[in-house]
Fold:
Amino acid sequence: MDNAALCRSLARALIDDPFYRAVSDAARDEEHRVELLARYMAPSLVESEAVGEVQRAGDMAAALWQLPEAGPEASGRAAKAKKATFLREVGPECLSAYEAVCAEMVARTPEALAEAWYLSILGTAPEARGQGLAAGLLARTLARADAARAVSYLETFNPLSLPFYTRMGFTEATALHEPVTGRDYWLLVRPAR
Structure:
């Protein structure tokens, strides 16, 4: 599998998301923004491979998960490595925006979700949308979560994605406001089954 192509697909899929716009605000233009976001996706992919799992549909779509079974020590090391790579690849301005947005979102995440399975990134290249790839990718990990009777959660800035996540079993949605981006987002929870 070509990780560079997948990271570029994820960047193109998420380019209009307020979170990803904030972390790539240093971009000179939209093509440079895709490049910056692809460089952001690469260490995110490595992090999920280390402390979770990655479900992918070739180079067109992926679901990046972080799982509590990795433990806080491994998760901390993976996050630190991700930030170091992010700093090197994307720069201090983008890293600063990333840390500010993440700090705000983490502060609003209920403590009860500390042991939940976290969907960090889900994206499908624009030309591959409408083929059921995202649902298929989520179904794989959600089946494992069901077998483990685990709670899962995610955040999304895209209100149009709420019906999709509801179909996937995320039934509890909390609307929140993120001050760095100045935008609303939703924290969605899928109860244990």
